[in-house]
Amino acid sequence: MRFLTLFHLWPFLDTLVSYVTAFVLGTAIGAERQYRQRTAGLRTNALVAIGAAAFVDLGQRLGGDVESIRIIAYVVSGIGFLGAGVIMKEGMNVRGLNTAATLWCSAAVGAIAGSDMVAEAVLLTVVVLAANTLLRPLVDAINRIPLVGHSVEATYTVTITVDPAQAGPMGDMLVAHLENAQLPVAELDSEARGDDLVEVTATLVSTNVPDKELDALVDHLARVHGIGHATWQLSTHD
Predict the structure, then answer these.
(1) Does one domain contain both 20 and 137?
(2) What DSSP assignment string belongs to the chain?
(3) Residue at which a domain ends, from 94, 126, 143
(4) What is the pLDDT along the chain (238 residues), one digit of tens a residue?
């Protein structure tokens, strides 16, 4: 039997250590994801780590370090397809990026375990868990900070609501005011709001604009030109 010629106790124990290490560490990473009720949870992260360890260990046993390095390169690229499966786009929001990145890290843990570097695999697991847990309060604190126009790169729009007969002249006037304020306009759109109102929207060229400048502009449009509804808003870039 070929099994008897290929089986060697010490290499087998080496493989066993790699598999068990990948299983334990992948489970630790997946447990945190499972607790957060993420798409890729405990079993997925454990299997990713074990699979990466198995491929790297197999390459190392059959072809040595050079072959295992080639397999690691394939693991790095191949795990991207699995990660893409947990990323979902809902309107303007994208979900699952953190979970996909965690899967990528689980594969790295497994590849390191498959390369017999147990201490390094444990270290990476600790760092991944720290990134997913200890950084969470910092992320929440940053998200609660109000956006300030001059501190973010964004696309700005200025909108006025006018009578249909005044849409053309008021649109030209809006563009003139923006250009005089050195705020170049990328496009000007108009949309009917019922039978008696038209919404004219000027989209600015992407830039950084202090909030107070746009506040002053819309206030001027309302006071001086008698526009009943003048607002501005920004949408941040990904």
Answers:
(1) yes
(2) -HHHHH--HHHHHHHHHHHHHHHHHHHHHHHHHHHTT-SS-HHHHHHHHHHHHHHHHHHHHHHHHHHHHHHHHHHHHHHHHHHHTT-EEETTEEE-HHHHHHHHHHHHHHHHHHTT-HHHHHHHHHHHHHHHHTTHHHHHHHHTSPP-GGGS-EEEEEEEEE-GGGHHHHHHHHHHHHHHTT--EEEEEEEE-SSS-EEEEEEEPSB---HHHHHHHHHHHHHHS--SEEEEEEEE--
(3) 143
(4) 676 677 778 888 999 999 999 999 999 999 988 888 877 789 999 999 999 999 999 998 888 878 888 889 888 888 877 777 777 655 445 677 888 899 999 999 999 999 999 999 999 999 999 999 998 888 778 767 665 545 555 678 888 888 888 888 888 888 888 888 888 888 888 888 777 888 889 888 766 777 788 888 888 888 877 787 888 887 765 4
Q: What is the CATH number of the domain that holds 218?
A: 3.30.70.260
Same domain, yes or no: 130 and 155: no
Residue-number span of the structural domain to which 204 is assigned: 149-236
As beta bridge partners, residue 93 has: 90
C-alpha span between 238 and 92 (Å, rounded)? 10
Same domain, 188 and 162: yes
CA distance 187 to 56: 54
Same domain, 172 and 194: yes
Tell me the residue type at 35. Y
Environment class of 62 (CB within 10 Å of its CB; exposed 0-12, middle 13-18, buried 19+): exposed
Count how many domains the chain has.
2
